[in-house]
Amino acid sequence: MTSKHFVGDGGTKFNVSVIAQPIRAEVKRYTAELIRKGEDLPTLLVLLANENSSSVLFSDLLSKYCNEDGINLEVARVDESEVEDALHAANVDSSVNSVIVCYPIFDAYETTSLSKFCRLTGEYLSRDDKLRDNVSPMKDAEGLGHVYNRPHSDAAYISHPENANDATKEITPCSAEAVMKCLSAVPGVYNEFLPHTKRMDGLTVTIVNRSPLYGHPLAVMLSNEGAEVYSIALSSTYHFKDFKYHKIESELENCIKSSNVVITGVPDPNFSIPGEWIQPQTIVLNMSEYENISENSVLQVPGTVLVTGVGKLTRSLLERNVIRLHEAYHRKDFRIHKENARQSIVAPEKESMPLGVAASAFISRNLLGLS
């Protein structure tokens, strides 16, 4: 059940944090079963390479959830120069079941290009993108490197590790998935009785953020469900519709005024969307730690729905990804040959990263609680 709070004749505040409760209950049941059977609990390693306030806050809140729900979370603070070696060490460390990397690291502002690679050289445009693609899919708790990482990737055609079960094939970027679940909880947004590609038909969505962490994958996921999407970045606007996308010339104001869903996630305290741009009956969701749009101004518009509580749902979905990966690849009764599976998912040789002795020792020391 979703919590609603009506505000006069204006809008409705829709708190979807209660959606997280059954997901966390699923996690707790799984870890309780492991304890009863005397098995090791899942271990999640968080690589934190700077003091970015959003990254630190996220890791702190996630740590609280994991402590309560039976997941062993370890935060490894590494220097930027060590993070690639540390990630490789985590990929091959059997005591680490899942990994997340806190971004941005090398890119002060996340890349907003729809392509990860330079057309001339084939090289990554972003070192952070390269990191995302080097997280082992057997440990990729955020799902950022292997699903929806390019325009209109279809999860059904993504190459998963050998013997992946249905649960692991459902691992998608948790922040974008949280928004999808939030929207699905709003009455009239999602029609589960229609074909997969038509379930959000009729929605026009403006996303003010094209970060690969959620803005870009969210645009793809919404489009794949039938929505029309305007994907906004600082220097460009892309239009997604009917499994096609193209760059357009359109002002932010026009996109927002033509949309019945507005999602914003700009990490800038000075960015603000005027309330008068929001049309009646519009669903508004703010993913930023800053108030990209005044809640009061949204709630003054007739029929609007202001969705809140997304962060709690995101953390819960990440926890669920952790236990799904643990169950598929890291439990004692896992029956496939791990070495063969590892060989099937390693990155191409030219993209592989050397295992640094110092980084390996750091990870081991961190997990043993010696640092």
Q: What amount of the residues lies in strands?
A: 15-25%
- Beta strand count: 12
What is the chain-wise order of helices and strands? EEHEHEHEHHHEHEEEHEEHEHHH
What percent of the residues sit in helical stretches (DSSP H or I)? 25-40%
**Order of adjacent strands in the largest pleated sheet:** 1-2-12-11-10-6-7-8-9
| First-residue to last-residue Cα separation | 43 Å
Q: Give the count of helical stretches.
A: 12
Q: Mean pLDDT, as a whole number?
A: 82
How large, in whole angstroms, is the Cα Rg?
21 Å
Shape estimate = globular
> Stretches where pLDDT falls below 50 for ≥5 residues?
150-159, 335-371
- What structural class should be given to the helix and strand makeup? alpha/beta
How would a crystallographer describe the biggest sheet? 9 strands, mixed
Q: How is the topology of this model organized?
A:
Elements: E1 3-6, E2 12-15, H1 20-36, E3 43-48, H2 53-69, E4 72-77, H3 83-92, E5 98-101, H4 127-134, H5 166-169, H6 174-185, E6 204-208, H7 215-224, E7 228-232, E8 237-241, E9 244-248, H8 252-257, E10 261-264, E11 283-286, H9 295-299, E12 305-308, H10 310-330, H11 338-345, H12 357-367
Parallel strand pairs: 2-12, 3-4, 3-5, 6-7, 6-10, 10-11, 11-12
Antiparallel strand pairs: 1-2, 7-8, 8-9
Structure description:
The protein has helices at 20-36, 53-69, 83-92, 127-134, 166-169, 174-185, 215-224, 252-257, 295-299, 310-330, 338-345, 357-367, and strands spanning 3-6, 12-15, 43-48, 72-77, 98-101, 204-208, 228-232, 237-241, 244-248, 261-264, 283-286, 305-308. It has 371 residues and is α/β, with parallel strands linked by helices. The protein has a nine-stranded mixed β-sheet. The longest helix has 21 residues, at 310-330. The model is unreliable at 150-159 and 335-371 (pLDDT under 50).
